[in-house]
Design goal:
157 residues; alpha+beta; SH3 type barrels; 2 domains; 12 strands
């Protein structure tokens, strides 16, 4: 019996530990829309240096900045590296999530429901609904983000 419990505990630990590590990743969306989960160490005018999240003591990988569409830090900050003078934009606040729409509106909201074809939220204008087809990206106040369109379209947003 204790051997079964020990085996079960080991299996649960193997499932939980990778999930924790993945939650703290930065993400680089490349021109081909492929995301790279990583830990960004530096962004210069020409390159993005990053490490593999499972080998943070390992070598730096380098991606030319012009090969990236979007960069998200695990804290929710983001950058559009293709813009001139690209800088980090704060993606989160203590109190609100953000919705960036296809009409380039940035809405500071509290979510009521984020499921199905509509996002229900509360803002300074009261309770509202927004069809997901009008949303580019949601940035949660804990730093997570969810794209509602291709990275290319979000970057052009």
């Amino acid at each position: 019996m204790t051997q079964k419990l020990s085996l079960l505990s080991s299996l649960l630990l193997l499932l939980i530990v990778p999930a924790i590590g993945q939650a703290n990743n930065d993400v680089i969306y490349q021109l081909d829309d492929e995301p790279i989960a990583c830990v960004i160490t530096e962004v210069t005018e020409q390159v993005i240096r990053y490490k593999h999240p499972e080998n943070q003591e390992g070598p730096d990988y380098i991606l030319k900045k012009d090969r990236a569409l979007l960069i998200f830090k695990e804290n929710g900050d983001y950058m559009l590296p293709t813009e001139d003078n690209s800088e980090w934009v704060s993606g989160v606040s203590e109190n609100n999530h953000k919705i960036i729409t296809k009409a380039n509106e940035v809405l500071a909201v509290q979510f009521i429901e984020v499921e199905g074809v509509d996002i229900k939220y509360q803002s300074s204008r009261g309770n509202n609904e927004l069809p997901t087809e009008k949303v580019l990206i949601v940035i949660y106040k804990d730093g997570r983000h969810e794209l509602y369109d291709s990275p290319k379209k979000v970057a052009q947003g």
